[in-house]
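Entry type: protein chain
Record version: 2
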Amino acid sequence: MPRMFRAMKKSEDDKPTVGRGFCELGVRTSEIDTDSEGNAIPNEKGMSVAPHWRLLSLFVMPRRLVAGGRGKNTHCFRRGDGEFRQEACGNGLELVPDSVNHGVVRPAAAVPLATFLQDLANTRDEWVIDES
């Protein structure tokens, strides 16, 4: 599985907070496209990730780690250990890098939006805090 990082809020059990808000394990409405039937479609949109936490946007980067970081109460989480390349990264999920510094986790096929969100949530226990 590809190694990816995402800045997210952490729950009391040190795992990412699942949801559709800012810096949560999920996607906001603007981060995914749906078809006329409400299915999440596989295109260039999805949940943003990076190949290393140091490459995350300053907008989400925890303030305690980087000067200029604007992330409030966020932590850098890592999932996977493989090369940051396009491939399956969970049940119904696919990592698609769009540059050397960024990629998205998108649905591997058109599925109901609720299914895509559940597939992302099902990865929760695989994310670990990694800020080294």
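Comment: The helical segments are 113-121.
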